[in-house]
Amino acid sequence: QVQLVESGGDLVQAGGSLRLSCAASGRTFSTYSMGWFRQAPGKERAFVAAINRSGDSTYYAGSVKGRFTISSDNAKNTVYLQMNSLKPEDTAVYFCAATGLWVASMPYQYDYWGQGTQVTVSS
């Protein structure tokens, strides 16, 4: 069992930056690959970024590539999402998730989810 708690969501102007954190507790953090997803009102949950359990491979949705960076700190059991050059269309609730797979981009492939943190980007 893994418990995930996101933080760092906020209201920010377009062009600004935020860093989201996801703190994990429970089973050994390093045995899971981690992902970030987001869900805007009326839309399905969408893949944002993922990092494998060894922390040496990362994957991004096309819409965020070059602007967002996922990273992990196994010593702190924490995964981060650095978001730069934010756009109004990035507004959503952001979720972190853990999977036993090597890497995954679909929500159904993830076993554990946090409660989400709201990111709002104003124009």
Largest sheet: 7 strands, mixed
Ranges where pLDDT stays below 50 over 5 or more residues in a row are: none
Alpha-beta content class: mainly beta
What is the helix/strand order? EEEEEEEEEEE
The helical percent reads under 10%
In whole angstroms, the N-to-C terminal distance is: 40 Å
Tell the overall outline: globular
Provide the β-strand percentage band.
over 45%
**Total number of strands:** 11
Summed over residues and divided by their number, the pLDDT gives a mean of 95
In words, what does this structure look like?
The strands form two sheets. Strands 2, 4, 5, 6, 9, 10 and 11 form a seven-stranded mixed β-sheet that branches. Helices cover 0% and strands 50% of the residues. 36% of the residues are buried. The chain has strands spanning 2-7, 11-13, 18-26, 33-39, 46-51, 58-60, 68-73, 78-83, 92-99, 112-113, 117-122. The model has no long low-confidence stretch (mean pLDDT 95).
Keywords:
mainly beta, 11 strands, 123 residues, globular, 0% helix, four-stranded antiparallel sheet
